[in-house]
Specification:
With 170 residues, this protein is of the alpha/beta class. It has helices at residues 12-24, 42-54, 69-75, 89-97, 113-125, 134-140, 145-156; strands spanning 2-7, 28-31, 60-65, 83-85, 103-107. Strands 2-1-3-5-4 form a five-stranded parallel β-sheet, with helices on both faces. Helix 4 runs parallel beside helix 5. Bound molecules: D-ribose.
Length: 170
């Protein structure tokens, strides 16, 4: 698989180790940096990996920053990206099975290396379950003005809790 990786200065050491681990498993890596401790802005690296995946240059992405949070927020700005910040394997599995996550965000400051390896293994092995999850993912990319109007009207009417999934889709 072609995998895009990127990190800021607080995540590049794990990013390099992750790239090597994935290469050893036979994957092709597109490395968008950064490559040293010189302070950089994490959004640029989240955007780069996000665009690589959204454009089809890469099938999946892995991003790393100090906490995993900022770079995940950046990657998720790119249309088509479903980036999940995770710090344990069960979240990594659900991110694939329920959310069809295409980018994984990891933390160099908060996660030990063994946990990182386990999260990666699950992320690249677990399938998307499809079925009832598919239309929910479609809704994530339907955040239009019309959707916002519907939500605001539902809030005003106190009807948000009635916005249930039709039974046949549960
Ligand atoms: C950099 O100090 C740090 O803020 C960054 O790596 C990340 O954790 C932001 O969300």
């Amino acid at each position: 698989m072609k995998i895009a990786v990127g990190a800021d200065h607080a995540g590049f050491q794990y990013k390099d180790r992750i790239a090597q681990l994935l290469r050893d498993e036979g994957h092709t890596i597109l490395d968008y940096g950064t490559h040293d401790e010189t302070p950089v802005d994490y959004p640029q690296y989240g955007y780069a990996v996000g665009e690589a995946v959204a454009s089809g240059l890469a099938e999946r992405g892995v991003v790393v920053c100090g906490s995993s949070l900022g770079i995940a927020m950046a990657a998720n700005k790119v249309p088509g990206i479903r980036c999940a910040p995770v710090d344990e394997p069960y979240s990594a599995e659900l991110a694939r099975r329920h959310n069809d996550a295409n980018v994984l965000a990891l933390s160099e400051r908060l996660s030990g290396w063994e946990m990182i390896e386990r999260c990666l293994r699950v992320f690249f092995e677990a399938p998307f379950d499809g079925g009832r999850h598919a239309h929910r993912i479609a809704q994530l990319f339907d955040f239009t003005d019309a959707q916002r109007e519907r939500t605001l009207r539902a809030i005003e009417a106190g009807a948000v809790s009635d916005a249930r999934t039709p039974k046949e889709l549960l």
